[in-house]
Design a protein that fits this description.
Blueprint lengths: L4 E6 L3 H4 L7 E5 L7 E10 L2 E7 L11 E4 L5 H12 L2 H11 L9 H10 L7 H12 L14 H4 L1
Antiparallel strand pairs: 1-4, 2-3, 2-5, 3-4
Helix pairs in contact: 2-3, 4-5
């Protein structure tokens, strides 16, 4: 625990406590996470209950009307830095940024797609897997393959 912090214990439903991970930043409020709140850290489930670390001076007189929510993380600076780093490389400028800006990447060579489908006929893949692989092979730069878990995306590709 950090200096200037103290531990506070609550007794919520266990299902509610399962939403948090040790060390995660959380907001403690009186059912208003976007308003007045106390920045805290989820310490874990202990013998004393759900335990969080709060600033030592935090006023937590009553413990029956508090709400614990995930903290909001502003990733703007992280994304701006990543975009600047992309712009500094030729691959970033020529391939990644144009794709992010929807300027390229969606073109499919339909002749190559048909040839790939024919070549994959005896591959053991089902029709949707064959189509996914053929789209990837026929794409100008890349093709997004998505679908529910367990449908064979990783195997096919």
């Amino acid at each position: 625990m950090l200096k200037g912090q103290r531990l506070v214990h609550f007794h919520p439903l266990l299902a509610d406590a399962a939403l948090f991970q040790e060390g995660e930043s959380v907001r403690l409020s009186q059912n208003d996470p976007d308003g007045n709140h106390i920045a805290a850290t989820f310490f874990g489930l202990t013998q004393k209950g759900l335990t969080i670390s709060v600033p030592a001076q935090a006023d937590i007189a009553r413990q029956d009307a508090w709400t614990l929510d995930e903290d909001v993380i502003d990733l703007t600076d992280f994304y701006l830095k990543a975009l600047a780093e992309l712009a500094a490389t030729s691959h970033g400028r020529d391939a990644v940024l144009p794709a992010l800006l929807d300027e390229t990447g969606g073109e499919i060579d339909f002749e190559a797609h048909a040839e790939s489908c024919d070549a994959l006929d005896d591959s053991g893949l089902d029709d949707s897997q064959i189509d996914a692989v053929a789209n990837c092979l026929a794409a100008d730069r890349f093709h997004l393959v998505q679908g529910p878990p367990g449908t064979g995306k990783t195997f096919a590709l």
